UniProtKB/TrEMBL annotation:
Keywords noted in UniProt: Cytoplasm, Gluconeogenesis, Glycolysis, Isomerase
Active site: 93 (electrophile), 165 (proton acceptor)
Organism ancestry: Bacteria, Pseudomonadati, Pseudomonadota, Gammaproteobacteria, Oceanospirillales
Gene: tpiA
Subunit structure: Homodimer.
Protein name: Triosephosphate isomerase
Species of the source: Halomonas huangheensis
Pathway(s) of this molecule: Carbohydrate degradation; glycolysis; D-glyceraldehyde 3-phosphate from glycerone phosphate: step 1/1; Carbohydrate metabolism; erythritol degradation; Carbohydrate biosynthesis; gluconeogenesis
InterPro entries from the UniProt entry: Aldolase_TIM, TIM_sf, TrioseP_Isoase_bac/euk, Triosephosphate_isomerase, Triosephosphate_isomerase_AS
Length: 248
């Protein structure tokens, strides 16, 4: 049984005031039984988010360096994140792949750095609209998955969370239909089974891309969708909580 995980990704948004709002609301509102929640906040807010938000909410970063330490001005290592009590980190988000040139080997290096630091990597996968139109969705998504899983040990693979995010649905208001999302999630699950049947049973595969309170329930009802990676709607505490309720 995979407990659903609702993870908010604030991207480069938010403020100390928003952290305080979430801290207040989330300390007054219990999450539904059996639902895990996480917030991926910008680097400057990680420490205060960890200290002010309830322990039940995991705190995540949005990227990390592929290096453990050294002369890499501006970078943040997995060990530093761990020092702050951060538990998770996004890796391979499409905005990192597209805007910051992170290819599959850069993504793999960051997954390995996260594992080395004791963090849970949330590995993001997804196709562009052009790739979907060319009927290459599964080839692209499974290729991104293999590029990481092939290089990890069986034990390391078990520590990942996956997020399928069709690039054309991110921040566009255009959500994959539940059937479209389920089809890709099922293909991911089948590929996981080709590595290890236990892995396919236990690994959480989240959906991301314009998930909001009005569409979360039907997406989360799909058998292979184990939660959501929420961008825009995670900036409103009421919307974030409503999506957590939908997962309950
Ligand atoms: O990480 C979150 C995703 O990029 C989804 O963002 P969105 O919910 O604003 O479409």
């Amino acid at each position: 049984m995979r407990a659903p995980l609702i993870a908010g990704n604030w991207k480069m948004n938010g403020s100390l005031e928003l952290v305080a709002t979430f801290a207040e609301e989330l300390s007054q509102t219990a999450l539904p039984d059996g639902v895990d929640a996480a917030l991926m906040v910008p680097f400057p807010y990680l420490g205060i988010a960890r200290s002010r938000l309830p322990e039940a909410i995991s705190i995540g970063a949005q990227t990390l360096s592929d290096q453990p330490s050294g002369a890499f001005t501006g970078e943040v290592s997995g060990t530093m994140l761990n020092d702050l009590g951060v538990q998770m980190v996004l890796v391979g988000h499409s905005e990192r792949r597209t805007l910051f040139g992170e290819d599959d080997s850069a993504v793999l290096a960051r997954v390995q750095a996260a594992l080395e630091a004791g963090l849970v990597p949330v590995l993001c996968l997804g196709e562009t609209l052009e790739e979907r139109d060319a009927e290459r969705t599964e080839a692209v998504v499974l290729g991104q998955l293999d590029a990481v899983l092939d290089a990890l040990s069986a034990d390391q693979r078990q520590r990942l969370v996956l997020a399928y995010e069709p690039v054309w649905a991110i921040g566009t208001g255009r959500t994959a239909t539940p059937e479209q999302a389920q089809q890709v999630h099922a293909a991911i699950r089948a590929r996981l089974a080709s590595y290890d049947s236990q892995l396919a049973e236990t690994m959480k595969v989240l959906y991301g891309g314009s998930m909001k309170p009005s569409n979360a329930a039907e997406l989360l009802a799909q058998p292979d969708i184990d939660g959501g990676l929420i961008g825009g709607a995670s900036l409103q505490v009421d919307d974030f909580l409503a999506i957590c309720q939908s997962a309950g």
